[in-house]
Amino acid sequence: MAVIAAFAGSAIGLGNIWRFPYLVGENGGAAFILIYVVFTLVLSLPIFLAESAIGRGSQVNCRAAVSFLVPGRAGRWFGFLMVLTPLWLLSYYSVVGGWSMDYLIRALSLEFIHSTPDQLAGNFERFISHPWMPMLFHLSFLGMAAAVVAFGVKSGIEKFCKWSIPTLFVLIVLIAVYSLTLPGANRGVEYLMKPDFSKVTAHTFIDALGQSFFSLSLGTGIIITYSSYIKKGENLMVAGVGTAVSDLTFALLAGFAIIPAVFSAGIEPGAGPTLIFDTLPFIFSNLAQQMPFLSAVVAILFFAAIFIAALTSAISLLEVGVAYLTEEKEMSRGRACALLFVLCGAFGTLCSLSFGPLSRVRLLGLNLFDFADSAASNVFMVLGSLISVILAGWVMPRSELFRELTNGGTLRANARLFPAARFLLQYVTPIGILTLILSSML
Ligand code: PHE
Q1: Contact 3, 239 (CB under 8 A)
Q2: CA distance 37 to 281
Q3: CB of 214 closer than 6 angstroms to any ligand 1 atom
Q4: Which residue among 172, 313, 380 has the greatest number of ligand 1 atoms within 8 angstroms of its CB, and so is best to mutate?
Q5: What pLDDT is recorded for position 3?
Q6: Which of helix, strand or coil describes residue 109?
Q7: Which atom of ligand 1 is nearest to the CA of 313?
Q8: Is 110 exposed, middle or buried (0-12, 13-18, 19+ CB in 10 A)?
Q9: How far apart are CA 363 and CA 213, in angstroms?
Q10: Which site among 103, 119, 156, 266 is 20 to 30 Å from 59 CA-CA?
Q11: Confidence class of residue 153 from pLDDT cuts 50, 70 and 90?
């Protein structure tokens, strides 16, 4: 349980609550969910096993683990990709972290309770297009993550996370139940349950794959790093399945909490990254008409839990780069944090401004934020994951993979499943990923 909790702590975050619902909305609902669930079980789970076997087998940081399997220049490049991806991701992740911080403050000031749903409409767009407010929140959020990593108070945060994730879970169930009772919610439920395959394109597949990797923190070196701390007696297959299932459950619950309310409020489901920030205030302000106290409490707890879930993920993202700089470049922890704060802060600021003053700047037709997000999840994480499965399936000796996944053959059920797992790892996952990459390019 402790191992699953640690993995789930990294996996569960803005990916489930913020990213999943808006991708469901952009990609037509149920069909996307179905593809996402299948990808998670057939493609992402083997990658999770691959990364955890590499991590526990090598017992060193992710760059060193990769270089260990692939000596020389190629290994250095792969390792570098695994250090760069989390930093790239952190830059815009902390923009959304900043948004959650602003919304926590609004919940604390009872804004959602004292306004009607109509008064709240358009609030979020005004906030993110403001020239400096969202930037300030982004930098404060990133600064907090950097301070935690620099001062090494990580264990405190981890303790915090032990209650925040279960709290978030309970709250999201409550919100989903409430959301289902809103007028017009049934259209949202239909949207989530009745697949419309006519909306499915090659892009839907690559979005579903990217989301699955994003949500399980794959291809970023984080699972490798975490696994290097796992004891030899733990069951990696059970940890992988447990993490994937809890992550999936969390995402689906978030879907049921948000999408019915989106329909009830008449919000456009394909609104993109702003979707939950438009929808949640609507839910809370609606609830406040009957039960203001309950609504205020739930809103505060909910945004606090999102903020903490985002902060813990941000800390793990920063930790990879800090470990690299302190171990390989002999930098002090404080300096490494300061340097990465400046780099990620600058890049994230550009992403943040892309909803306001820089909205005209487009790369491949996307604003900077969307470009950073799709490059991270649909390109970098996909590449990182591909490298991980190839390393575990083809480079790591079979006997070593067997030893890690079955604890030297002592776990009978795992030993029986091993040939199937290795087949998935060696053939199904890499071929599946390559096919998806190629089809999205055509
Ligand atoms: N999985 C996290 C989430 O869902 C994001 C993340 C990705 C964290 C990669 C670490 C590494 O929010």
Answers
A1: yes
A2: 28
A3: yes
A4: 313
A5: 72
A6: coil
A7: 8
A8: middle
A9: 23
A10: 156
A11: low
Q: What does the alpha-carbon distance between residue 39 and residue 17 come to, in Å, rounded to a whole number?
A: 19
Q: How far is the CA of 374 from the centre of ligand 1 (A)?
A: 14
**Which pLDDT tens digit goes with each residue over 325-373?**
888 888 998 999 999 999 999 999 999 999 988 888 898 889 999 999 9
Residue among 318, 379, 310 nearest 344 (CA) = 318
Rounded to whole angstroms, the maximal C-alpha distance in the chain is 65
Question: Is the pLDDT confidence value at 323 over 90?
Answer: no
Find the angle CA(143)-CA(146)-CA(147) to the nearest 5 degrees: 85
> Per-residue confidence at 243, pLDDT binned at 50, 70, 90?
very high
**Sign of the CA dihedral with 90 first, then 17, 38, and 373 last:** negative
Q: Are 53 and 236 in contact (CB under 8 A)?
A: yes
Residue 354 beta carbon below 6 angstroms from any ligand 1 atom: no
What's the gap between Cα 338 and its chain centre? 24
pTM higher than 0.85: yes
Residue 316 Cβ contacting ligand 1 at under 6 Å: yes
User: Helices 185-193 and 154-180 sit at what angle, rounded to 10 degrees?
Assistant: 110
Q: What is the pLDDT of residues 122-135, one digit of tens each?
A: 888 888 888 899 99
- For 154-205, what is each residue's pLDDT tens digit? 666 566 667 777 888 888 899 999 899 999 999 999 999 999 888 888 889 9
